Amino acid sequence: MKQNIIAVDFDGTLCENKWPEIGMPNEELIEYLKKRQTNGEKLILWTSRNEEQTQDAVEWCKKYGLIFDAVNDNLPEIVEAFGGNCRKIFANEYIDDRNRSIGSCREKSNMERWAENEVAIACRREKPDRKDGEWDYGCACYESALKAFGSLCEDGHSGFSIGLTKAILNRLINNKPLLPIEDTDEVWSDISDMSGLKGEERNYQCKRMSSLFKYVYADGTVKYRDVDRYRGVNINCPDAPYHSGLIDTVMDELYPITMPYMPADRAFKIYTEDFLVDPAKGDYDTVGILYVITPSMDKVAINRYFKEAPNGFAEIDEAEYVKRKMKVQWDDLLSSDFNRIKEAFGFELYDWQKKYLRDEPIDFPIGRRVGRSFATNLKALLGDGDTVTFDELKRRRCMGKQERIYVDDILDMDARLRAAGFTTNVIKRR
């Protein structure tokens, strides 16, 4: 027969098992069966309830829009096809809370018994006072995983084959295609109107992978973007990964998608930092894209820097990025009365040093070891001065005794400041 027939139980299946009463409806299953029936499939109510109770069940189902083609009986077309009726209900599918697969009717392996014990331990830890039949979110996750594991065991998987099956399952769970995507017309849906495009440019979304998009520009250029391909990680908040159009743009330049496309199991993890220079511009106005951990676990330096501009973010060089970052840092130092300097070096600044750093008028103290060199070096390292490279300092160190003393002091202070988390005017260190 071409049509599909579904036999479904009532208590514990269409509703919560409260026999002889009728429990809460399984609305998900009811809607599923109504959809199947709309597609031309036949439904049979298959229940052990007595005649009166069965009629109550039928009327109850009607309230939810579920009307059966037969109740505890074969369909007329089945009777005709087989030349008579029989006690067994014929169906292509049987839905019953007590259903057990043929594969499960066997002695369990040691591996299955071990898994059951592990899940039981985990569920006791998750919900120590759980009653029989009581639903719990955490336990449900453990038990669902056990079902999947049991299904693999029923199919005879172990060793190498279960590893392959696991890899396939993981890709399906992560919405990753099992075979490479090729740029053929049938895999794309034109979403140009949804994107607001009315001209020659066209946007397409992949039917096999909803995160993959194709952009066809007026000049014929074609680009692809997988919005799940990259994960931003702010180094100051590493536990909250995020997505960014700026990251997409930079990374697509470095790692463009080509066809056929087979997405990696892991996403690219792009490490960034951001900060706000102008308080009027919101949460941040400067971004550093520092490095990436590729799906193959390689660390690759990026070191590209951006500041907010009228039309998005404009790229800047490292020196400008450092100066912007140091301005924020300096403002924080001034507002905290230089407390972080005390933490970095282990001593409190003199009042005259603080005034000097604030550009207030002062009289420098006379004599040696009064802190003048420390104050001037600190301002050179953290203040609004010129940046200097490590190589430049190395060259200056060779220019004489005094220069060597100065450079050594600068480098020592620079190391202490960096260890305390400061950004300094010394850039591009080895």
Fill in the keyword field for this structure.
430 residues; 4-stranded parallel sheet; alpha/beta; Rossmann fold; 6-stranded mixed sheet
Question: What report would you give on this structure?
Answer:
The chain has 430 residues and is α/β, with parallel strands linked by helices. The chain has four domains: 5-95, 3-Layer(aba) Sandwich (Rossmann fold); 102-173, no CATH class; 185-316, no CATH class; 328-427, no CATH class. It contains 13 helices and 18 strands. It has helices at residues 27-38, 51-63, 76-82, 110-126, 137-154, 159-173, 245-254, 318-335, 339-345, 351-357, 372-382, 390-397, 401-419, and strands at residues 5-8, 15-18, 21-25, 42-45, 70-71, 93-95, 188-190, 202-206, 212-216, 222-226, 230-234, 237-242, 268-275, 286-293, 299-309, 312-316, 388-389, 426-427. The chain has a six-stranded mixed β-sheet. A four-stranded parallel β-sheet has the order 5-4-1-6, covered by helices on one side. A four-stranded antiparallel β-sheet has the order 7-8-9-10, with no helix packed on it. It is elongated. 16% of the residues are buried. The mean pLDDT is 89.
What are the SSEs and their pairings?
Layout: E1 5-8, E2 15-18, E3 21-25, H1 27-38, E4 42-45, H2 51-63, E5 70-71, H3 76-82, E6 93-95, H4 110-126, H5 137-154, H6 159-173, E7 188-190, E8 202-206, E9 212-216, E10 222-226, E11 230-234, E12 237-242, H7 245-254, E13 268-275, E14 286-293, E15 299-309, E16 312-316, H8 318-335, H9 339-345, H10 351-357, H11 372-382, E17 388-389, H12 390-397, H13 401-419, E18 426-427
Parallel strand pairs: 1-4, 1-6, 4-5, 11-13, 17-18
Antiparallel strand pairs: 2-3, 7-8, 8-9, 9-10, 11-12, 13-14, 14-15, 15-16
Helix pairs in contact: 4-5, 12-13
